[in-house]
Amino acid sequence: MPTPRVAPYGSWESPIRSDLIASASIALGAVAVSNSAVYWLEGRPTEGGRSVLVKRTADGTVTDVTPQGFNVRTLVHEYGGGAFWLHGDTVFFTNFADQRLYRQDPGDEPRPITPEPPAPRSLRYADGCVTQDGRLIICVQEEHAPDGQVHNRLVALPADGSAEPRIIAEGHDFYSFPRVSPDGTRLVWTTWDHPRMPWDGTDLWVGTLNQDSTLSDVLHVAGGPEESIFQPAWSPDGTLHLISDRTGWWNLYALKDGELIPLAPMDAEFGVPQWVFGLTTYDFLQDGRIACLYSQRGLTHLGVITPGSGRVEPVETSFTAFRSIRTAPAGDQVWVIAASASHPASVASIDLQTGNATVVRKSLDVDLDPGYLSVPEPIEFPTDGGLTAHALFYRPANRDFIGPEGERPPLLVLSHGGPTGQTTSALNLEIQFWTSRGFAVVDVNYGGSTGYGRAYRERLKGNWGIVDVADCVNAARYLAQQGEVDGDRLAIEGGSAGGYTTLCALAFTDVFAAGASYFGVADAAALARDTHKFESRYLDGLIGPYPEAEDLYRERSALYHANRISCPIILLQGLEDAVVPPSQAEAMVAALEANRIPHAYIAFEGEQHGFRKAENIRRSLDAVYYFYARVFGFKPSGDVEPIPIRFMEEAE
């Protein structure tokens, strides 16, 4: 191997280019299994971000199920998820363009089974199931009424589309997880109401499903304002299972004789925050055992619970991050989406006896030399209030380069979205884009993040813009004090809620020399006034009730303190974003302009909350890289198109 060349950190040439990330990678969605095939969703940037359902049959044949002209994506809650479900090999899905529900029988074209809505996308569907006899669908419906009100409910409709959907449950703000018992006589579902979010507190209901598709004898089974219920499901013998955080950790329970029986009590998270529909972290094997996913200390594990054992038997695999698990029709096999620090997210089958995995689809269709990959190191560091916070630290890694003697790398601090989210150890090409060029990266699981129990998650209650900022700042300071990074070249970036943290860190501290906000919240009060229903009361718990706490909202919003920002900043925004509208970025740009702060602003036509199109993924990465190169004074590698940066010449 050639001797590595000496070059300034940040300027290293890397094969992990923006066009590779945009064109060679796909997003893998939920997995589903029938008796004859495994199905999964692929989000394809090169097809305009279209989501396509793909299946693999037992003989190994992989084919697209979704024909051209269709896009399997729902807009319920704006974030979607749960956009398709199966009955045998018949697929039911929501089509993005019109949000109608479609039925696609094997070998046939999709056909709509819900009426054309009175206004475009005014009726939306998600998170459905089909009765075992294939007669009836029950799913979540979201209606966007002409008066601007949004109504969520459960509906039932014939699976052949012979009648319109009929409302069977309404009156709560939100519904999820409608699931029919194996004998078709009972329905379970969850609800929650403003101002709670589903990870704050949900209610679990069970009712009798009558022959005329109505519900009767509805009972409240579990949950409440301070107990979050996740993924209720019926075992093959008709026993109701669910995940509850009543102990402070999302653990798995079975309902027997009206009592919740813990199946494997432990300080671990078997559930995840319900940002989207259709999430699955456990499933039933034919012999009564339960295959499950659980998270501890930032890593996700695969395990098996034998009822009555009281514990999880870990399954040793090469993966450290999992999501979406389904059991095979027979045997000790599960289908998952799995990844590790060096292996991209993949659809894989895993033998529960041996831990051996068979990968059938990778999110990246090229193999990367491990000499260009940085492996994350879980770190704990001191933060405000005498507490400890968590993060994953990535060192610069490129087999072809080393930095100059005595120089420390610049650090990029990543603040994840949510803020009730979690960063994982899964291979992330956008992180590797930076580390392979000579940046160090720290991906912070600040207080409020999922994966460390309810108490850690609730550190952010009333403290958004304080705890998250402090943890990001303290992660950067900790690494600088350890001599790992250059304390004068610290940058912070994040998207959505992570963008809010980024903007607050730049306005309220002087630690960072640059920042990048992807569709970030600049004005928390504006977000409280102008966002979608799902998050319209989220800030009540994170900051305080609005408008009663309006002064506090202004105090925590970077927009009203933009005169305190003294370092360059770049903002990126989708112009069709209904979660954080473009007005947020535009107001921030105007404030930066008024204060003559060096800044760049890039808006993307046709993008919503997050960028899905290949050309926009590529352009956003290259733009931010060029921006950091200008700020930190190195020459960017590769053919990076310059972007205009207002007032940058004055700063230089």
In short:
With 652 residues, this protein is an alpha+beta fold. The chain contains eleven helices and 38 strands.
Task: Reconstruct the topology from this structure.
Layout: E1 5-6, H1 18-23, E2 27-33, E3 37-44, E4 50-57, E5 62-64, E6 84-87, E7 90-94, E8 101-104, E9 111-112, E10 123-130, E11 136-144, E12 150-158, E13 166-169, E14 174-180, E15 186-192, E16 203-209, E17 215-223, E18 229-234, E19 240-244, E20 251-256, E21 259-262, E22 282-284, E23 290-296, E24 299-305, E25 312-315, E26 321-327, E27 333-339, E28 346-351, E29 357-362, E30 377-383, E31 387-394, E32 401-402, E33 411-415, H2 429-435, E34 440-445, H3 454-457, H4 467-481, E35 490-495, H5 497-508, E36 514-518, H6 524-529, H7 538-542, H8 550-555, E37 569-574, H9 582-594, E38 599-604, H10 614-632, H11 648-651
Parallel strand pairs: 1-32, 33-34, 33-35, 35-36, 36-37, 37-38
Antiparallel strand pairs: 2-3, 3-4, 4-5, 6-7, 7-8, 8-9, 10-11, 11-12, 12-13, 14-15, 15-16, 16-17, 18-19, 19-20, 20-21, 22-23, 23-24, 24-25, 26-27, 27-28, 28-29, 30-31, 31-34
Helix pairs in contact: 4-5
Which percent band covers the strand fraction? 25-35%
Class by SSE composition:
alpha+beta
The tally of beta strands, per DSSP, is 38
- The Rg value, from CA coordinates, equals 24 Å
Strand order across the biggest sheet?
30-31-34-33-35-36-37-38
- Overall residue-averaged pLDDT value: 95
Oligomer: single chain
Query: Given the C-alpha coordinates, what overall shape results?
Result: globular
N-to-C CA distance = 39 Å
- Helix content class: 10-25%
Separate helix tally: 11
Main beta sheet: strand number and arrangement?
Answer: 8 strands, mixed
Low-confidence stretches: none
